[in-house]
Write a structure and sequence with these properties.
This protein is globular. 45% of the residues lie in helices and 17% in strands. The N terminus is likely disordered. It is an alpha/beta fold. The relative contact order is 0.09. α5 packs antiparallel against α6, α9 runs parallel beside α11 and α13 packs antiparallel against α14. It has an 8-stranded mixed beta sheet with strand order 3-4-2-1-5-7-8-6, sandwiched between helices. Strands 10-11-9-12-14-13 form a 6-stranded antiparallel beta sheet. It has 2 domains: 240 residues, Carbamate kinase (3-Layer(aba) Sandwich), CATH 3.40.1160.10; 156 residues, VC0802-like (2-Layer Sandwich). It binds adenosine-5'-diphosphate and aspartyl phosphate (PHD). This is Aspartokinase. It catalyses: L-aspartate + ATP = 4-phospho-L-aspartate + ADP. GO terms for molecular function: aspartate kinase activity; ATP binding. Phosphorylates aspartate, the first step in the biosynthesis of amino acids that derive from aspartate (the aspartate family of amino acids), including methioinine and threonine, the latter of which is a precursor to isoleucine. It comes from Saccharomyces pastorianus.
Length: 525
Amino acid sequence: MDFQPTSSPSNWVVQKFGGTSVGKFPVQIVDDIVKHYSKPDGPNNNVAVVCSARSSYTKAEGTTSRLLKCCDLASQESEFQDIIEVIRQDHIDNADRFILNPALQAKLVDDTNKELELVKKYLNASKVLGEVSSRTVDLVMSCGEKLSCLFMTALCNDRGCKAKYVDLSHIVPSDFSASALDNSFYTFLVQALKEKLAPFVSAKERIVPVFTGFFGLVPTGLLNGVGRGYTDLCAALIAVAVNADELQVWKEVDGIFTADPRKVPEARLLDSVTPEEASELTYYGSEVIHPFTMEQVIRAKIPIRIKNVQNPLGNGTIIYPDNVAKKGESTPPHPPENLSSSFYEKRKRGATAITTKNDIFVINIHSNKKTLSHGFLAQIFTILDKYKLVVDLISTSEVHVSMALPIPDADSLKSLRQAEEKLRILGSVDITKKLSIVSLVGKHMKQYIGIAGTMFTTLAEEGINIEMISQGANEINISCVINESDSIKALQCIHAKLLSERTNTSNQFEHAIDERLEQLKRLGI
Ligand SMILES: Nc1ncnc2c1ncn2[C@@H]1O[C@H](COP(=O)(O)OP(=O)(O)O)[C@@H](O)[C@H]1O
Ligand SMILES: N[C@@H](CC(=O)OP(=O)(O)O)C(=O)O
């Protein structure tokens, strides 16, 4: 993929707002963030906004989840109207509450009703067929981002910040022939987004484009191909298209912490993490940023900054590789260096963060030796693939396989039970539920001896039983599976041993000595 970014500043920042932020803090987003970043006596940037569908409280009860529930109901030929009414009422109450200008408010209510009528049409057609295609799911899902962005555009204009709604739900033409989400598809999207941005880039007057954080009907279906959290990827592609100086992902936390601050009050805010670390944290339970986001922006040398909507002046956390030059710099840092911490600061911490993921089941399969071991693994994965079951961790010997799988809902449990029946043909199967994965993540852990040992000894000292152990092939993740009821205790005790401020301070002596020894070595003493 060749985006050919220029190294000079473009004076554009792309700001992505998640669903719960739009739901809870819309006025702060407009007044303290969008207006602030674009004002002449402030950072004076051109701002492009990208929003996800609104959630008043949690993502699980948000608009996207509700729309997906409607798709489920339609596919079972059941009634979905009540949920559409809940979505309508929620958005209309919101318009009443926040939009003061009567004309803007009336237009917003009208646009909201029109979008929901369209969704009802798609769902009614699917209900008759008793089947909802992935294309229909995408069309229905896009309504969430449309409603949210219609509202945010109206709110910006209502509060004196000129903004224009940009609907991306048809950016991929229906006859587009790509069969996969590959580089050529992303190149096509970036080009199409450049065209959408062009009028804003060339405009004499500053107008904030508000992009629906939904980029159309992608080849494999957005939900299958990208999954929930797709707005991060959409924002990344917009950042690449405008060659932004920074992609800002605004959340309800100050940035990325050494652990979920809700579960570990001593968790520390990190200045910077690498894209690999951010991906691992997201895969293993800390929903930081969608893993597909990073590749797009980092190729174009655009740093990603995670920031808090409630604390806009905080520095946040930067996601950027520690061995790649930034936009505007010709050479990468040497020795490899995080953006704001020194080499020794980074070495000192070893592990970067810890995370847990609940709703895990472990399947143990002991081969009946009727197939050779290579056939044994191949058959297991064919069965799991058939039931769309994802394996988070695996540990194997020639005749025994243990796998940790996320089973977060009734549908995946049903698939697991169906797969179990087939797996029994291969050998004895036992399944343990209510487990949790604990993952210690850190790009620099491999330079240390004894981190895994400390992690597992700490769990043993707390009387926490380990069900399974696995170290990721990329060497930035050491994981184990424990009882879900122990997960908070495990997080807190490992954090205290390997990640707390106190641990780092006590390590300072050790590293001061290390540093001195290296100096002496350099001097040949
Ligand atoms: N290591 C971590 N650093 C920061 N937040 C974390 C971490 N692990 C888990 N979290 C949780 O992830 C959530 C992400 O922020 P939130 O604004 O709720 O997301 P969204 O933008 O998807 O709405 C926070 O509630 C936070 O408690
Ligand atoms: N609205 C979509 C896309 C998204 O990215 O959401 P959020 O930015 O709130 O995580 C979802 O719920 O998955």
